[in-house]
Amino acid sequence: MSASIEKSDDLERNASYWKSVSLYSRRVMLPDSTTDLPFCCPVSCPAISASRAFSLIDMAWAIRDIQDGYSQSQAASQRRVDAAVVAKACAELLRLGNASLRAQGELRGVRLTEPRAALSAMDIDMASAWQSKFESWVKHLSNTSIPLINENVWEAWEDAKWGIYIEVSPKLRADIWLGFLVSLKFPTTKMVLKREPMSVQEESDLDACILLSIGQNGPLNSAASPRGVDVKHRGDRPACYLHIANEDEIVTDHTGPAFETSGLKALMLAIRITSVAVHGRKE
What we know:
Blueprint: H1 2-24, H2 56-67, H3 72-79, H4 83-103, H5 115-121, H6 135-142, H7 151-160, E1 161-162, E2 165-166, H8 174-183, E3 191-195, H9 200-215, E4 227-230, E5 240-244, H10 262-279
Parallel strand pairs: 3-4
Antiparallel strand pairs: 1-2, 3-5
């Protein structure tokens, strides 16, 4: 009985609501169907692209995600990079990883098939690219078009690698890859050249190499010369090698791991594989 009373009350309440709406709602006046109305042509919908424009750093993030265990498609999706471009970058990454193992004499009829394995083979830690000393450069690369890296630049960069060190040698054409970094606005004030005692001629050749690299983009775009730090001779490292440090950091012969170049290696690899994926391999 009580349920019937409640239902009746609900019906009366709803009827009251609709009555109020009918009484107080404003009448909408529509023109007569014979009245001329202005018409306009519809505007075409904008073209829908498969992906947005992406930056080098977007690709670096995607490769970092892959190193962290995400699939290529997952990395491409969450970084909003074209999956086909990520696939091309990973193909180049695998090619470089296999080449690295062959150079080390560790590849005997086996081929790397996973990008993560290639990164491990080249001792690359993508997370190191986000160290604070690279922050300004990463920001710059995020807002520039995908750079093109030629084969001679990449080969000179690869020749400079000496274990954990990056050798700066005129004989190995360090001016080529140094000039490339300068062209991409890498802050040379963060570069530190640690060098052993040299002959007058060796110092002259090195200075000429550095001047050539920082001035090859024209006098208006020349960069500051890197800092120099004298170190003692050791047979297990190059006579002159590169460290990266913030401008206010003190670097001596005894400072090492905090200023190593793993972040630069990661970013140079990202530049290489992205360049190949977007521009193809260029001589």
